[in-house]
């Protein structure tokens, strides 16, 4: 991941990087049922996005954000770790710095099918 440590600074890059990313996969139905309908995509395959931004993201990207459904967020969101490959790719894609970071390749099965 990184040389040194990298803590989440709530930039929101990970939650506004790609509408193809926040898909449901391994969550039990009981947890998915708790996500408010206004945050679920029409086809119910993942989170609803406004452009590339997840609808559950609150705040200004690059400044300070939070997840309005953090406690029940999908597994794909839980797997995106501060300083991990997905985080750094999203930060760079939004023009945000990732000091002393080495990006490790990430495979996104949803984008490979496109």
List the helices and strands and how they pair.
Elements: H1 29-32, E1 49-50, E2 53-54, E3 57-60, E4 64-67, H2 75-79, H3 85-93, H4 109-112
Antiparallel strand pairs: 1-2, 3-4
Textual characterization of the structure:
By secondary structure, this protein is α+β, with helices and mostly antiparallel strands. The protein has one domain. It has helices spanning 29-32, 75-79, 85-93, 109-112; strands at residues 49-50, 53-54, 57-60, 64-67. The strands form 2 sheets. The chain has a two-stranded antiparallel ribbon. Strand 1 and strand 2 form a beta hairpin. The longest helix is centred in the last third of the chain and has 9 residues, at 85-93. It is globular. The two termini are 27 Å apart.
